[in-house]
Every structure is written in C-alpha cells, then in structure tokens.
Amino acid sequence: MKIKSLEDLRRGRLLRNALDDARATIKDVDASVKAKIEAKEAGRAATAQGLPEHTADA
Q1: Rounded distance between C-alpha atoms, residue 41 and residue 33, angstroms
Q2: How many helices (H) does the chain have, and how many strands (E)?
Q3: Per-residue buried b or exposed e for 3-32, using 16+ beta carbons within 10 Å of the residue's own CB
Q4: Residue 14 CB partners (closer than 8 Å, separation 6+)
Q5: Is the pTM of this model over 0.85?
Q6: How far from each other are the two terminal CA atoms of the chain, in whole angstroms?
Q7: Residue whose C-alpha is closest to residue 8's, from 16, 42, 54
C-alpha cells in the first residue's frame, strides 16, 4: 500500500493510536480478571480450612 497523501499518514497514525489504546485496555481487563480469580481462589482455600473468606486477604 502506497502512502499518497498526508491524510493517509494521519489515518495510519490514528489507527496505530487506537490499536495501542485497545491493547492497553485489554491488559488492564486481563489484570483485573486475574486478580478477581486469585481472590476467589484464596477465599475458597480459606473456606476449605474453615476460616471466614475475608481472612484470606490478610
């Protein structure tokens, strides 16, 4: 694909910026989901030991 104008350059930059934003959002969501899963697993482990769930965070 040949760049024919400054507008083509501008569009490419906008697309790259949008992709970078999307990647950052995906990483944030991924980290959030992993943290929730770990918290849930810690709560289950605490419950299995007979402790209240909130003590697993301490």
Answers
A1: 12
A2: 1, 0
A3: eeeeeeeeeeeeeeeeeeeeeeeeeeeeee
A4: none
A5: no
A6: 57
A7: 16
Domain ranges of the chain: 27-58
Tracing tokens 């301490």 back to the chain, one arrives at 58
Here the tokens at position 51 are 């402790």
Residues 55, 42 contacting (CB under 8 angstroms): no
pLDDT tens digits, 14-57: 899 999 999 999 999 999 999 999 999 988 888 888 866 565 45
31/33 Cα distance (integer angstroms): 6
